[in-house]
Structures are given as structure tokens and as C-alpha cells.
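Fold these two proteins, one after the other.
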Amino acid sequence: MNWLTNYVRPKIRALYARKEVPDNLWHKCPSCEAMLFHRDLEENLNVCQHCGFHMRLDPIKRLASMFDEGDYQSVELPKSVVDPLKFRDQKRYTDRLKEAQTKTGRHDAIVVGSGLIGGQPAVVAAFDFGFMGGSMGIAVGEGILAAARTAIAQKAALIVVPASGGARMQEGILSLMQMPRTTIAVEMVKEAGLPYIVVLTDPTTGGVTASFAMIGDIHIAEKGAQIGFAGARVIESTIRETLPEGFQRSEYLQEHGMVDMVVHRRDLRPTLSRVLTLLMQPVLAVAPEALPAAAVPAEEPRSQAEAADETPSQAGAERTGSEQPA
């Protein structure tokens, strides 16, 4: 054995082993490109500390941030038909659904919870944009309908937080049918005398905007959220004009009367608390003709002096046809 060429390398263990750094510790702000530490970003509800840009928020975290003490009960949603059209483009629709379900850990693009906001009962339906762009299919329509029925049963306000690109193309006409279904669900809540509030987030577009997202009693939008039906490039190519700066953003829509208020995400729960406190108070405003006869005060009898002072024209006008002089 030649000890110059054949030897056993000694095993030397370093005192300080190098640890691999996870890739998700830092996030870049899409607006100002500042690097944000993940814990600071979570504590600020996915809002950039430097420029105030509102990033998308997971629906579970959103529900926890909206309800009092983060306490709420999940509402079980009914199961819907999967791939009714047997649709296939570059992939099968069933494969796309499985990928989205594995990625997000939920059945579809909506989560519903019930609890208290500012001490007032509320049912919140939040969209998940990470699930196929928050697109609205049959399952989402069933979720909105279940949320409306739960709100009516619990005599609670209904709050919907859309984050969607519109209807789900893989379900064709069945996805478009969810527009009238969700509108009817909202009307059920309003007929029950309960408030319906929409919290518009980025983005809210397409068939969602054209249905339940724009028929609320109160419209609250997050800062900088894109809200519209068609995309800005499609509109520009259609009308052949340059759109104004900030078009389809929440601040622009507030200036033009489409949104009631624009709030920071950290101020959303206090704002909802004040609004619900006002809307959930019973209001007794009944027209006199709707009251029972006993509740309507009778006309006081007039004295002979008052009757004598009355002019002949006034007296004749008050007589009925059988009492008119011949």
C-alpha cells in the first residue's frame, strides 16, 4: 500500500454547520420593489410598509382579520357538480381543479364563515384568487347562495369579499348562470331586511362585477384595487381613446360615485363595525296608512262656532253626493 496515493480522508465536522435559508423569508413589493420580511408583511396584513400597496390576502387570514378576536365558525358549503361539460383545452378541467385544490388546500374559490363583527352578527364570503383566479363557477354560486341562506337563518348581515377575474370559462354557460343566481341570493337577504355589504378587493372584474359585486347596500374598497368589467387594454382598443390615469382603481371609482368609501386593510374591521352598528339597528318607519285603524287618531269634533265660521264653498266641498243640495 502506497501511503502517498492511498489514504482515508479524515471526517472533519464543522463546528458551525451551514443551514439552508428558506426562499420565502423575503418578498418583493410589486409596486415599490422594496424587500419585505415575511413576518413584518404578515403582521401588516400583506400591505407594504413603505408604499401601502395592498397585496392579495389568503381568505382564511382575511376572515380572521375581519371577525372579532379572529373567532368565527366555518360554514359548510354544498358539493357541486364537477366538470359538467367534460371540458378540455390544454389540460382537462378535472386536472386543473385537482392542481388548484392541492395548491390551496380547499375545495373551490370561496370560503364562508359566520361570527361577530363589532358585536353584530355577520356572515362573510371571501374569494381566493389563488384558486384559478377566483373564477366563479357552480361551486362559487352555491357558496354565495349558502352564505345568503345562513345570513337569513341567523338574522345576520351578509358581507362578500370578491377577488375574481370573472366567470369560469371551463363551465361555459353554467358559469354565466351563476350571475342571476347570486343576484337572487342577494335579493333574498334584502327582502329579509338584512344589510348586504361588498368589500371590493384586487381584482374584481368580469361577471362578478356585473352581478352581486355592484348591488350592495354599501360598497367598501381596498386602496388601489382594480374594479371593472373588461380590461383597460380591451376598452382602449374598443373606444380608441387613452383612458385617464387611475382608471378602474378604487379611488377613481369613489370619485365617480361607484364606491362609497376606500379604506386601508387594517381599518376594515373598525369600519365594518361602525357600519353594521348603524344598519343593524331596528328602524320603525311605518306609513300612517299601514297602521291599524285604532292607531290612527280620529278627527276631533268641531264646535258650532267653528262650523258657523266656515264658508259655504268649504261646507259644500265636504259634503258627499247624497248630501248636496238639490
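Now the second one:
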Amino acid sequence: MLTIRYLESSDKAFWYRLDQHLPEKEFDNKVETKRGYVLLLNDKPIGLLRYNLFWDNTPFCTMVFVDQEYQGKGYGRKLIEYWEQDMKAQGYKMLLTSTQVDEEAQHVYRKLGYKDCGGFVIDIPEFAQPMEMFFIKSI
């Protein structure tokens, strides 16, 4: 059975196994503000999604990740669709997300109705990465 729920403090060990980019203080904030979700398959956590508010008013998905052995089975799509429905229920009308140009997620976002809307390159040596491309969707 597939379940998606808000992130809880007890998810910390699982969360950090998949997401080492989130500062601990921000983890606590995600729990408190309900800006993170955990995907469970038969009560076993296998995926996560986190977001924040861009411009303080537009939901921006900052990470979707499904455990390696469960990738390619539509679970990431389920997380995104759940987030979209939750954001719509909360009264939001537009969503943003992003991915690096060398990642496959861009194709998933387009299939889900997101449109390319720009990008930027970080060329500061300490933080350099491939171009980050942004996507937008009306809900």
C-alpha cells in the first residue's frame, strides 16, 4: 500500500539517508511548517519531497527523491502529483521547480505539464554545477 504524509521528526534518519543537503535547523522547520512529505510503501519510507515558498508566495519544489531501488516505477510522479493537489487545496495557483540540465527529471516535469521558464549558471568554483533550469505550472 502506498501512503504519502507530511514529514515528521521521527523521519530524520530516513530523510538524511536520501537528502544530505538540508541543514538540520531547516529539517525542523520543514516538520513544523509541513513543507516536506514522505512516501511510504507498505509502511516503509522510500521517497521524499520538500518545498519552500519562492517570493514568499509561490510553492517551489526543491527536491524530489526516491530510494534507488524504487526509481523508475512512478513513485516520484506520485509525490509530485500529491504535492500539486495539496498546494491547490491550500489555494495556490502556480508552482515552480527546477533541475540541472544533466538530470532526467526535466523530462518528468514536462510530462506532468510543467513548462521551461529559464535558468542560470553558477560558475563560482566552490559551487559550480551544470545549468539549473526552471519550470512553471498553473494549477
